[in-house]
Amino acid sequence: MNNPNNPAVSFHHVNKIYPNKTIALQDISFTINHGKFVTFVSPSGCGKSTVLRLISKLSEVSSGKIESNIDRDKNELAFVFQEPTLMPWSNVIDNVNLPLKLTGKSLRESRTIVQEAINLVGLDGFERSYPRQLSGGMKMRVSIARALVTQPKIVLMDEPFGALDEMTRSKLNSDLLRVWQERIKTLAFLWSKKVPGFQLFTPKKLVF
Ligand SMILES: Nc1ncnc2c1ncn2[C@@H]1O[C@H](COP(=O)(O)OP(=O)(O)OP(=O)(O)O)[C@@H](O)[C@H]1O
Ligand SMILES: [Mg+2]
Fold this sequence. Notes:
There is one protein chain. It is built from five helices and eight strands; from the N terminus they run βββαββαααβαββ. The model has no long low-confidence stretch (mean pLDDT 87). The protein is globular and about 50 Å long. It has helices spanning 48-55, 92-102, 107-120, 136-148, 166-182; strands at 7-17, 23-33, 37-42, 63-68, 77-80, 154-157, 187-192, 205-207. The protein has a five-stranded parallel sheet, sandwiched between helices. Strands 2-1-4 form a three-stranded antiparallel sheet, with helices on one face. It has a domain at 86-151. β1 and β2 form a beta hairpin. The longest helix has 17 residues, at 166-182. The chain is an alpha/beta fold. Bound molecules: adenosine-5'-triphosphate and magnesium ion. Residues 48-49, 158 line the site of magnesium ion.
């Protein structure tokens, strides 16, 4: 079912019109296969975040159809936002552990998975640091590690590197490619045309 080349998410002639009559998406069709890294590129306001909200079922289509075998209720989907949204009073371990804690697991049970995710994003040695002691890029790494601990089938990233400087962004881009190859099963990634650097990504691109 989750083999590469099997669809994880398919949009069929999707339209999304918000209650205030804004047409956010018009006749959009595409497929994201399992195991793929898909980048959505468009100018601001063309509906990228709307696509992610529809995939994650935070919003409903107005017409058309979305097929998906991702179950959000079973933690099969994880979201990484533009801002790292970390708990300022918790250290790196506790921030990364949060999704597992919410499933009722103790840190003792989760510790190996949490440490593995921290190592994967290159933050070993910073386990006991608090968000205020980390750079913007490091906070984003914590946010990515947190998205990985439930071992989701798909990770959605809404312009996660947009607020970072170009050097940090470029380093995180290449690290994200490695993390995706090693761990993430399927990745849908948003990139605004106003932010330089999206051409660095080699995987599949959908340009609005
Ligand atoms: N909740 C909402 N209610 C009404 N209109 C909305 C809502 N959310 C988004 N829109 C509108 O839908 C269109 C697409 O918005 P969306 O946020 O999906 O674009 P985007 O491509 O993610 O933009 P950006 O690159 O600036 O993040 C825009 O015109 C926006 O104003
Ligand atoms: Mg957006």
